[in-house]
Design goal:
Layout: E1 16-22, E2 25-32, H1 38-59, H2 67-72, H3 83-98, H4 115-132, E3 137-142, E4 145-150, E5 158-163, E6 171-177, E7 180-185, E8 194-195, E9 200-201, E10 207-212, H5 215-228, H6 230-237, E11 243-247, E12 253-255, E13 261-262
Antiparallel strand pairs: 1-2, 2-3, 3-4, 4-7, 5-6, 6-13, 7-10, 8-9, 10-11, 11-12
């Protein structure tokens, strides 16, 4: 699998794949049912996809009448929004403090915008549905936000390729992942990142990757790393369980101590 959602090899025997268009991208699932069985795993897959669509309905800033759009315009109070909005904003506050403000959805133009954390949060919840169903292993990749469940057959860790920022047909590295990995950068969506300290587009990374136990936080941390570069690297690495991989605009690299790179 790749960190930016590119095509991967065929699924191993007994496994199945599924692609779901949601949240402005395609979420790819690779599921090893194991003793849970195909039928139960596919039912859980449908429930996981429903989780993603629910998140899209609630948090989309592109849909004018979504709860978050109405919150941003001041038409809804936080207490009148679906409860998951407060949950995501609480996580966003954790990320803001942990990154020394390099991730700050309250500092963006147009009102609070949790876009930089909500996709990871939603994918983590979707993967949790598969875990609850008892599948042996699963990987959910939604535009570079990746959550894993269990392991590959035989107990091998999941291996996630991080796409090279300037060579679409090449990988910068391959990481062994137990948990989550999120990658942020400008090579797919252009200059979409906003520096919360200036309120204007800005990035100090060609590619920014964070691994850790929670995809919601890894997503926010990767956004912070992409915007803050080396200045955000230290604060994120200080959070227990998380590690960074940074490709600077000049092509030089910086690896966190706990990053597990495989050939």
């Amino acid at each position: 699998m790749t960190g930016t959602g590119g095509p991967g090899p065929p699924p191993p025997p007994g496994a199945f794949t599924h692609d779901e268009a949601v949240m402005g991208t395609v979420c790819s699932f690779l599921v090893h049912p194991g003793p849970a069985g195909q039928e139960a795993a596919r039912i859980a897959l449908g429930e996981a996809c429903a989780v993603l669509h629910r998140a899209d309905d609630v948090f989309s800033t592109w849909v004018p009448d979504s709860p978050v759009s109405r919150l941003r315009r001041g038409e809804l109070a936080l207490g009148d929004c679906p409860p998951e909005v407060a949950e995501v904003l609480q996580l966003a506050e954790v990320a803001r403090r942990a990154t020394s403000g390099w991730f700050d959805p309250w500092a963006l133009p147009g009102g609070v915008d949790p876009t930089g954390i909500v996709k990871g949060w939603a994918v983590e919840r979707a993967a949790g549905v598969l875990a609850t169903a008892g599948v042996d292993g699963a990987l959910v990749n939604c535009g570079g936000d990746i959550a894993t469940v269990g392991s590959l057959p035989g107990g091998e860790p999941w291996r996630v390729g991080i796409r090279h920022p300037w060579r679409a047909d090449a990988l910068a590295c391959i990481l062994a992942v137990a948990g989550a990995v999120a990658t942020s950068g400008t090579y797919e969506r252009g200059a979409h990142l906003v520096d919360p300290r200036t309120g204007r587009p800005g990035s100090r990374a060609a590619s920014a990757t964070v691994t850790g136990p929670s995809l919601a936080l890894a997503d926010a941390f990767a956004t912070a790393l992409a915007v803050g570069g080396d200045d955000a690297f230290g604060p994120i690495e200080a959070v227990d369980g998380y590690a960074c991989y940074l490709i600077r605009p000049d092509g030089s690299e910086r690896f966190g101590a706990a990053i597990d790179v495989r050939s």
